[in-house]
Amino acid sequence: MLDDLRQQASxxxxxxxxxxxxxxxxxxKRFLGMTPLQRFIIAIMLFFITTLIGTLFLLVTGRxxxxx
Length: 68
Prior knowledge:
The protein is mainly alpha-helical and 68 residues long. 72% of the residues lie in helices and 0% in strands.
């Protein structure tokens, strides 16, 4: 009787182990397949591009004049 219980316990443990491991894996949510660091670098680049284009637009329209 005890041998049967041990067999059942070992069989059920072997079947449940992969499902437990799948649950413990952290879900990786990525926006457009990028890591957070890559998204941060792209955000900084967009900020600098916007600043540069805005500054050039102000210079071309004559609203800002360079001091030299």
